[in-house]
Amino acid sequence: xxxxxxxxxxxxxxxxxxxxxxxxxxxxxxxxxxxxxxxxxxxxxxxxxxxxxxxxxxxxxxxxxxxxxxxxxxxxxxxxxxxxxxxxxxxxxxxxxxxxxxxxxxxxxxxxxxxxxxxxxxxxxxxxxxxxxxxxxxxxxxxxxxxxxxxxxxxxxxxxxxxxxxxxxxxxxxxxxxxxxxxxxxxxxxxxxxxxxxxxxxxxxxxxxxxxxxxxxxxxxxxxxxxxxxxxxxxxxxxxxxxxxxxxxxxxxxxxxxxxxxxxxxxxxxxxxx
Length: 274
Known about the structure:
The protein is mostly helical. The chain has one domain: 3-Layer(aba) Sandwich (D-Maltodextrin-Binding Protein, domain 2). The chain contains 10 helices and 7 strands. The protein has helices at residues 2-13, 37-44, 65-78, 97-107, 120-127, 171-198, 205-217, 223-227, 233-242, 247-273; strands at residues 29-33, 50-52, 58-60, 84-86, 111-114, 150-151, 219-220. A 3-stranded parallel beta sheet has the order 4-1-5. The mean pLDDT is 92.
């Protein structure tokens, strides 16, 4: 659970209390993270921004106590500067260099946990770290949560589009080819990823396959991150970055505009069907 992760992290970051200033170069952290992980964490709690209404249409799901309570756990963990290192806080002006700095703290053995994409394992392999490591799904909200949920980041997603100029007669074979690519991607590439990951020389092989099974078997997309309705994707990230939990008031001020964008997208999809 997130409480257990926080508890374990605090034991590691306890040594920071003697430092005049905690930095990515001298601190030891329970968690190394980035603001986007606020979204991933909420998804791991099965608390998506966009759910479905009674008619199976997308609807905004942020103005409720369950969302506020779950986000508070995420916010408190990620903004605890003695325990957690947020990549975007490492520079006054954002650049991709902040993620390299955060990674360097983990590579040097000064982070107990790091939230990241699965492809990040290759960077750990390339860094030839001196410690053993393993892969885990993001934590549950509490012990009552029945299973793990693994967020899929749209930042790393690859998409194929069919140009409108393609002759109608060719669409069937193109669709067939794309379906085959998707099928063989799962059948060939996923096993290859397992093999590469688990053959990493300092990977804990005993549990790696089980953990990867949990992650791949419980993938979840939140439509809010896929379509980024009225910049909904950045609602959680901006609040975490600000250091002040304003979710209730932010949700109230943004909800109408976000839902309107959702409704507009539904109408556009309906027009395609016609």
